[in-house]
């Protein structure tokens, strides 16, 4: 037979107080006499009592659970963002519930339905885009929604975006200023709003300058994609001498293709710029010039927006656009 869980009633009996007094002792801000609190805490420690926050939350309609809906959780950038979000949530007295999805909207929809079933107070969506009808269902159930780097806002949600297009324009300007004349854009086929925004900014800057670029995209947002596309581009007769990669993982693959497979010098033969500023970008083996994702700022804005009060489903979507800073290292000629 399973051992019975220690209850608040058990603590009350041992401490010689009421069940209500035990509840107040473990409720932040509640008034309890000092000696009464001491007896309750001593009894709780002796019995090994732990407050059942989930049960309390179901009663008060505030569970403290926040669903984190994300794909590619093993990539360096996503890992850093999830770490920052969970740290902020814990500091705010909340608990992050990670739901690992693929990139599809259908997978995200299933994840949101699970979040509703678990009575989460909020969901932070890092991948995919929920259908508007499902968003309305979340809001009707009192769930707050935060969309990070998504393409379209929904009523009652907070959208946190980066100025990706401006980063693409800055990348073009930096490569041009470095004397690069044969420029290339390397992207995956993931098609996320962030990746497409960076690529669009680079293309627009090139078009405005009257510069033709080699525009390539293939596969997943991965090191292997960079290695494959880098090998393809750098073995062309008109190989590029300046490459903007939409993520650092892709850029690392391009750099290894150049140096290891083709014995080219970076930045002597080809300059490379990435995006994300993952830890590997700062390794001496890469010294990658890149754009830093403001991970802490994203996490701070996301968690600060979460309040116990339910959100009115007719509330106008809120938008926060964060700048990204360029980090100069040794992969671009200067």
From TrEMBL:
The keyword Repressor applies. This is Substrate-binding domain-containing protein. GO terms for molecular function: DNA-binding transcription factor activity; transcription cis-regulatory region binding. Residues 6-60 form the HTH lacI-type domain. Keywords: DNA-binding, Repressor, Transcription, Transcription regulation.
